[in-house]
Structure formats: structure tokens, C-alpha cells
Design a protein that fits this description.
three-stranded mixed beta sheet, binds zinc ion, 418 residues, single chain, 11 helices, twelve-stranded mixed beta sheet, alpha/beta
Length: 418
């Protein structure tokens, strides 16, 4: 059953933004727009387009469909400049978000009656709705927030949660933090680590490091503020994140350069594009997420039939080195295979402003504690980057502790200022 036709009817009736946009594409009725199979013919939506329609009179934007009274919650995104983007939800939208997030998180294997410690500072941000999902699953939720590792460790030691939810960067940081204090997370009560908020949790070498250090299963979840909190969640098979928001959200892939719709088949990759199917407050159609993903449609051993994705990085972070697309997270993954000689922290330092780079691409690789810089290691990393990612890099080995740690999200690229 496709909710698309009904959603399109709603957009044409209520959304000034989409009436205009679809009208410009020659579509004035849901019938003309067609069904889900033909969604690729409809225009894409860029975040900047929506943002451009917000005004002091309508700070949310022209895609707003619900009345003031009909809105139950307004989240905002952490805009780096100027005013944030506002994300309104009706009561029903919020409920769907929580249902989708609950499906995503329960895929990890956490179950009612268990305790989960969370580290997100939900506040104004969309992650708050993901936290409501824990209650929906029947978990006992211990929110400790970000930036207080002492408090987090204490909650783990004293309250003995079975699960912890944090960013992959913070999960890695915790291992170093604990090691410096002679603590061993492998002996803690935590058996499942749920990571979200940035790509990385699904990279095999990085995941292996987290699983080893925590003595726990690591699964990842992913959402995007404009569309839904935790849309995707990985199951215990660890072969990509299932679409927990199935039925609420439609997923497709496009070629990020041409914008052309790609066939959704097992093993396909491209930029993830999402459409609301049952949204009311400010629904989005064919929204470009800027997330570059691999997608699988083959049946999963867990029995779930929803498609699965793994995020290889943000297209915003992507660099093109002499025609080859390079994601900093992929560079980190290759570097991580040199553990235990490397710490796992890297920083790509593009020399040219913008996306296009002339080789070699400078990469700083941090050594593990008490490991000395050797030319051979730098050479081996450089060689493996070339053979795996087809990128010519220059590798600078830097001492342990010299790259910045994060209790939230890691910065993998240091862009030149223009
Ligand atoms: Zn599965």
C-alpha cells in the first residue's frame, strides 16, 4: 500500500512550497504524479530551498501545512550559522517518529525490562524523540547527557545498564578514558552498545575495536532531523541498518552529481533520498539527505524484510581527488586496519578549498600510545589507501594524543579557509 498518493494530495492542498514546486514540474494532482514506482520523476527537494522560504512571518518555511494549534512540538537543527531550521510535528507525526525509532532501536536486540544509559543532550534537538522510543520499547532509561564522562561511568558502574547509546566517537573516547584510569569496560554490565549520530559504527575495523574494548555487540542507528529521528536501526546480524520507519518514510537512491534516480537493488549505492508518506506538519518529498549509502534489499537472517543501508559518509564531506570520490570515513576505516599501531584518530587536511583536490591528499594519522613513527608504517598506510580507495595520499604520522578527541562527533576533515 502506498501512502504516497494520499501524501501528494495533502501537499497539493496544503503546502504552498510543494504546490509551487510540483506545479513548475507540470503536476497539479496526485493522479498526475503517479505512484511510488514513478517517484523518480518528481522533483527533488534541497534543504537550502526550504530554508530560503523561511521569513520572520513564517520562520518554519512555506512547506508548513499544519495550523498553529495543530503542532505539538517544534524541534530545531543545530544550524552552524544564523537561525536554526525548525522542524514542526503534529501529535500524530511525533507518534510515528517514536514508533519508527522504537522499531529501529529494538532491532539491536534490546528488550523490555533492560536498562539503557543514553548520552544525548536531547534538548531542542531531534534526538529527543529517539529517546522517547526507549520508553516505547519498555526499557528503563537512564539519561546522563553528553560531556560528563565521569557521570556516565558512574551510572554504568552503579546502575548496571545492559545497553548504552552514544556516538561512535564517544564510544571510542570512553575506551581511552577508561584505560587511562585503569578501568576495563569489558567487565561492565553493558552488553550492547548502540551507536548513532555520525557514520562509523558500521565500519568493520572500527566496529571491531569498539566491540573488543567494550566486550559488547555494537549496532548502529541513523536518522536525519528533517525527516525522522532514528529512521534506521541495525539488527544483530550487523549487516546494515533496517528501515524502522517503513510505511512512514520512503527511501530511494540518486546519483549525487546528476540527481538521477538509481535502481534500488541489492548492493546499490548512492545518495539517500527520503520522502514522507504520512506526515502532516511539514512533509517533505524526495528530500536530499546528503548521506552517501550502500543499500541492500536481500532478505536478512533476522527475518526483517525492510531494506538495509550503511552510510559511507556525508556527500558534504566527500572530496574528489583527481576524479576519485573519497570519503574521510573510508580513509579512517583503512587506517584502522593498522591497529594496534595506530590510535584510530585521523585528520584529512585538504590543501585546496572546495571539493576537488590535487593528489597527494594529506592525511594525518595518529599513532597508538608508545608507538614510534616509522617510515615503513607510513608507507604501508599510503600503499593500502592507494590499493583500497584508489587515492594517492601523503601520510604524516603524528604522536598519540595530538589529534582532537570528541565526546560527540569527530571532525575528520580540516578544510582550508577560503
Ligand atoms: Zn536484520
Amino acid at each position: 500500500m502506498s501512502g504516497l498518493r494520499e501524501q501528494l494530495g495533502y501537499l497539493l492542498e496544503r503546502s504552498a512550497f510543494y504546490r509551487e514546486k510540483l506545479g513548475a514540474a507540470g503536476i497539479s494532482s496526485a493522479e498526475e504524479a503517479g505512484g511510488l514506482e514513478e517517484i523518480g520523476r518528481l522533483p527533488l527537494t534541497e534543504k537550502s530551498e526550504i530554508k530560503a522560504t523561511s521569513s520572520p512571518e513564517n520562520p518554519i518555511g512555506k512547506h508548513l501545512c499544519a495550523s498553529r494549534r495543530g503542532i505539538a512540538r517544534i524541534y530545531s537543527t543545530s544550524g552552524t550559522t544564523g537561525t536554526p531550521s525548525y522542524i514542526p510535528l503534529t501529535k500524530g507525526d511525533l507518534d510515528n517518529w517514536i514508533t519508527g525509532s522504537a522499531r529501529s532501536y529494538s532491532a539491536s536486540g534490546v528488550s523490555a525490562g533492560e536498562r539503557i544509559v543514553s548520552t544525548y543532550n536531547a534538548g531542542p534537538f531531534v534526538a529527543g524523540a529517539a529517546l522517547d522510543a526507549f520508553e516505547r520499547i519498555g526499557l528503563s532509561h537512564i539519561p546522563v547527557g553528553t560531556g560528563n564522562t565521569e557521570r556516565l561511568m558512574l551510572a554504568i558502574e552503579l546502575l548496571e545498564p545492559e545497553a548504552a547509546v552514544l556516538t561512535p566517537s564517544y564510544a571510542a573516547y570512553m575506551l581511552e578514558w577508561a584505560a587511562e584510569r585503569g578501568k576495563d569496560l569489558r567487565t561492565s554490565s553493558v552488553r550492547r552498545v548502540l551507536v548513532a549520530g555520525e557514520p562509523g559504527g558500521g565500519e568493520p575495523a572500527f566496529r571491531a575495536k569498539l566491540e573488543e574494548g567494550w566486550g559488547a555487540t555494537v549496532t548502529e542507528a541513523m536518522g536525519i532531523g528533517d525527516i525522522g529521528a532514528s529512521l534506521w536501526g541495525e539488527c544483530e546480524q550487523q549487516e546494515g541498518m533496517h528501515l524502522g520507519a517503513r510505511g512512514f518514510v520512503h527511501a530511494e537512491l540518486i546519483d549525487p552529481e546528476s540527481g538521477r534516480a538509481l535502481e534500488v537493488s541489492d548492493g546499490a549505492s548512492g545518495e539517500l533520498v527520503l520522502s514522507h508518506l504520512q506526515h502532516r506538519a511539514a512533509p517533505l518529498l524526495r528530500f536530499r539527505t546528503r548521506d552517501h549509502v550502500e543499500l541492500w534489499t536481500s532478505p536478512c537472517a533476522c527475518g526483517r524484510t525492510s531494506p538495509r543501508v550503511r552510510c559511507s559518509g556525508r556527500t558534504d564531506d566527500m572530496l574528489i581527488v583527481r576524479g576519485v570520490n573519497v570519503f574521510p570515513s573510508a580513509v579512517r576505516e583503512v587506517v584502522n586496519t593498522f591497529a594496534p599501531k595506530v590510535s584510530g584518530h585521523i585528520l584529512v587536511r585538504p590543501r585546496d578549498p572546495g571539493v576537488k583536490q590535487e593528489p597527494p591528499l594529506p592525511v594525518a594519522v595518529e599513532l597508538a600510545q608508545d608507538v614510534a613513527a616509522e617510515d615503513e608504517l607510513a608507507q604501508a598506510i599510503k600503499e593500502k589507501l592507494r590499493s583500497t580507495l584508489v587515492v594517492q595520499a601523503s601520510v604524516e604520522l603524528v604522536p598519540w594524543g595530538s589529534l582532537q578527541r570528541s565526546e560527540y562527533k569527530s571532525k575528520l576533515v580540516e578544510h582550508q579557509h577560503r
